[in-house]
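debug: dumping io for the single-chain case to check the tokenizer round-trip. Nothing else runs in this session.
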Amino acid sequence: MRISILTLAVTALWATNTMAQERYTADRTGNLPIAGARSIHIEGKAGTLTIRGVANAQSVEVTGVARADDRRDLDDIQLLVRRRGGLIEIIADIPDRDSNEWGNRNRALDMTITVPTGILLDVVDGSGILNISGTGAVHLTDGSGQATIENVRGDVTVKDGSGALTISAVTGDVTIDDGSGSIRVEQITGSVRVREDGSGSIRIREVGGGFRVDEKGSGSISHTGVTGTVSIPDRHRRGRHRRDERP
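debug: decoded output
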């Protein structure tokens, strides 16, 4: 009898935990014609964010999935796609957590966005994996999570809190302010400048212009294939010509 009661208790606990961990989802979509737009502002809070440039695109297309631990939260997670003159805004509207809420109620909006190649992007992302490819110039402010930027025609400026940062195949200059996490930059036609980096390694390859680090905390600096002038803090100069090995 004791075994049966114990079995029932364990089964009930398993069922409760399974229900608590279940994710509720709902689709979110939006689009706007691009004619006359000069730039796109994108805000992601929590969730994955993928931005892809599409040649000859006539509109901005957004597909998203809202995710929540509580079904009641789904209606509060909205996708805003709107226009203000020459600016298109795409915003993940996720209410801030109420300090009086009990328990762990996660909310997120995963977004995949296609934009015309060549248009200027201003991206603000909270947390989660971020991928940007095939676009025009990018200005990124990122909170945390892995970020990858590649195949960009124009300058790239990044202010990153934490997480690995990879930038490649940029026709233009790259400027970075970073808190923590590794930085990897390669195949840049212009110059690369790291204005400030708190911690984590910096690896630079194949740069058509110069490479400069203004302030560096902990972590190594390595570079190869830099055509222009290299300027890095004195204490990181030893071994600065070390040749990297690809993983």
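debug: round-trip ok. Helices lie at 2-21.
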